[in-house]
Amino acid sequence: MDFSFSEEHQLLRETVRRFSETELAPLVREADDNETFPRELFPKWGEMGLIAARYPEKDGGGGFDKIADCIIREETSRVCQAFASSLSAHSHLGIWPIWRIGTEAQKEQYLKPAMAGQKVSCFGLSEPDGGSNIRALKTHAKKVDGGYIINGSKLYITNAPMADFMLLAARTSPELSADSISLFIVDLPSKNVVIEKLAKESIKASETGLIFIEDLFVPDEALLGGREGTYPVILESLTENRVGVSANCLGMAKAAFDEATRYADERIISGRPIGKFQAIGHKLANMAAEIEAAQWMVYHGAWQVDQETLSNASAAKIKLVASEMAVSVSEDAIRILGGAGIMRDYSVGRIHRDTLLYIIGEGTSEIQRNIIARSLGF
Ligand SMILES: Cc1cc2nc3c(=O)[nH]c(=O)nc-3n(C[C@H](O)[C@H](O)[C@H](O)COP(=O)(O)OP(=O)(O)OC[C@H]3O[C@@H](n4cnc5c(N)ncnc54)[C@H](O)[C@@H]3O)c2cc1C
What we know:
This protein folds into three domains: 7-115, Acyl-CoA dehydrogenase/oxidase, N-terminal domain (Butyryl-Coa Dehydrogenase, subunit A, domain 1, Orthogonal Bundle); 121-227, Butyryl-CoA Dehydrogenase, subunit A, domain 2 (Beta Barrel); 232-375, Butyryl-CoA Dehydrogenase, subunit A, domain 3 (Up-down Bundle), CATH 1.20.140. It is of the alpha+beta class.
C-alpha cells in the first residue's frame, strides 16, 4: 500500500491551484452576483488539459488517472464550486459516456472539441416528474425513417443555457425496464428545444436549465454508440461521478476550514485569539478530523475507479460522507466567523450555500442511503 501522492500528482495540484487562484478567483464575485458563467473558462481549461486529464492519451486525453481528476476538482472547488460544477457537468457527465461507447464519428464530432473546451456539453437525465426515480423518465424518442422524434422535458440541467450539445436520456420503448432507456446527442441551440435559465440560491454562477423538447427530429447518427438500451452506461457514469463530486465537496470544505482557521487566529476577543477558546478550538479539531476522514475515502475511491473495483455502494458511501461533511464543516466555519461569516467580504457564506448542491445533485443523501441499505440486504 502506498498512501502518498506521486510527484506528478503534486505538481498537478500546484498547477491547478495557481491557475484557480490567479484566473478563477478574480471572476467569482461578479459571476455569483450576476448568476452568469464566464464561458471563456472552458477553452482555458481545455488548453491546460484539465477537461480531458483523466481520459487515455490514445483517445485524445491527458493520460492521467482518476486521482488526478479528483485533484483538479478539489483545487477548482476550493476557489469556486459554481465553476467546478459546470466543469464537472461537462468533463464527466456530458462526455464520459461518449468516450465510453460513442462511435468514432461521435467522438470526432463531439468528444474532441469538448475535450479542448471548444464545445460545451450538458447532460439531460433528470425530469420534472421523475426526480430521484430516474428510471421513470418520460422523455421519449419514437423511431421514424432515418432517425427519431423526441418529446419531453428535463429539469435542473447544468450548463444547458450555454451548451453546444446535450447528451440526452430518452425512452426508446414504453416499458419501464432499463433496456428501454437510450442516450442521444442533441445539437444546441435548436428551435425544437426551449431552455429556460433557472434562478438559484446555490452555485449561482453555474447556469442551470429547465428544458422543453417538442417534436425534435434527430438522425440515427445521434443515437449514442449506435445502439438502444444504454441505461447501464448512465449508471456506470453516475457511480464514477459520485467519487468525482465528493472531491469537489472536499475542496469546498478545505476552503471553509482555511478561512475559519485564519479568522480564529486573527480575531481577538477578551485579549486572545478566539481559536484559544476551547469551544472554537474543538470545532476546528472536529472539522480537521472530518475533512481528513473524507479525504481518505475520496482518494481511495478514486484509486478504486482506476483499479476498476469501485462498487455502487462504495461510491454512495463516499458521496454521502463527503457531501454531508462539506455542509457541516462550512456551517461550523460560519459559526466561527460570527457576523463576518454571513458577510460577503468572506467566502464561507457562499461556500455553505454551494455545499447544499451535493446533498441533492447526483442523487440525494437519502438515495445514497437507499443504495447502501440495499447493499446490506435491506
Ligand atoms: C443545481 C443542480 C444541478 C443539477 N444538474 C443536473 C444535470 O446536469 N443533469 C441532470 O440530469 N440532473 C441534474 N440535477 C438534478 C439532480 O440530480 C436532482 O435534483 C436530484 O436527483 C434529486 O431530484 P429532485 O430534485 O427532483 O428531488 P426529488 O426526487 O423530488 O426528492 C425530493 C426529496 O424526496 C426524497 N426522496 C425521493 N425519492 C426518495 C426515495 N426513494 N427514498 C427516500 N427519499 C426519497 C429526496 O431525497 C429529497 O429529499 C441537478 C440538480 C441541481 C439542484
